[in-house]
Amino acid sequence: MARRKQQLTASAPIEAVSTKSTAARLPVARLYLRASTDDQDADRARDALVRFAKEHDIRIVGTYIENEGGTKLARPELFRMIRDSDQEGDIILVEQIDRLSRLNEADWKKLRAEIESRGLRVVSMDMPTSWQLANSSTDEFTNRMMSALNSLMMDALAAMAAKDYADRRRRQAEGIAKHRAAGGYTGVGRPEDTDKAKAIAKLLAAGLTWTEVMASTNASRGTVAKVASRLRVTDAAKVATAPAKHQRQRVMA
């Protein structure tokens, strides 16, 4: 019995080493999640990416989230992720290529060159040709073929994403011009959500902090700031008119 107990104890470290070794062999990935504006949820695709990584035996070591336009090359979290990816073969995992880029051709070439110079691999859920890159056990010829194919597909999808953005902006401008000509357009951007604005105003008046209001209403900091600014103007106007009103009451008395 004592001998069997000794055998079981001795086997434990072997299992632990085996588990650690298996984890070390898994491809390493960093998630990149992006939305264009503060009103959009950049974290929306996290669960889908985590499931994808699990299904493809990819080990996630970092998550980078930002609200920045895809047409901008200068994105802090994107380049922090690239700097943190210090091992050749590390994976940048995205939901779609347009999360990585809606850049013009010149900026896309700069970004792709930065990624390739570090030996990083881009795996996207909307690009099945990239899934094979998550499997580092394939032979060198297959890896080179898939990398070349993946590069072509990325270029095509990045170009499509940039064109889609340009087309949407063009259609938006045409629509605005049409409504303006008909006298039906008086402002810029989307109309304000008046119900949300009223809720924000009520919470601010009750003394809640901006962070608490943002959490309660799912509003961006910019939206809360806009409502808070209006409230300050309204309060200042009330204070300014109060003495005059009081004076009129005294005269009538």
Keywords, please?
disordered N terminus; Rossmann fold; alpha/beta; 9 helices; four-stranded parallel beta sheet; 253 residues; 10% strand; 2 domains
Mean pLDDT: 78
Q: How much strand?
A: 5-15%
Report the principal-axis shape. elongated
- Structural class estimated from helices and strands: alpha/beta
- What is the correct CATH architecture of the largest domain? 3-Layer(aba) Sandwich
Strands, count = 4
| Elements, N to C (H/E) | HEHEHEHHEHHHH
The unreliable regions are 1-22
Question: Might you state the CATH topology name of the largest domain?
Answer: Rossmann fold
- The total of helices stands at 9
Say which CATH homologous superfamily of the largest domain is assigned: Resolvase, N-terminal catalytic domain
Strand order of the largest sheet: 2-1-3-4
Question: How far apart, in Å, are the first and last alpha carbons?
Answer: 105 Å
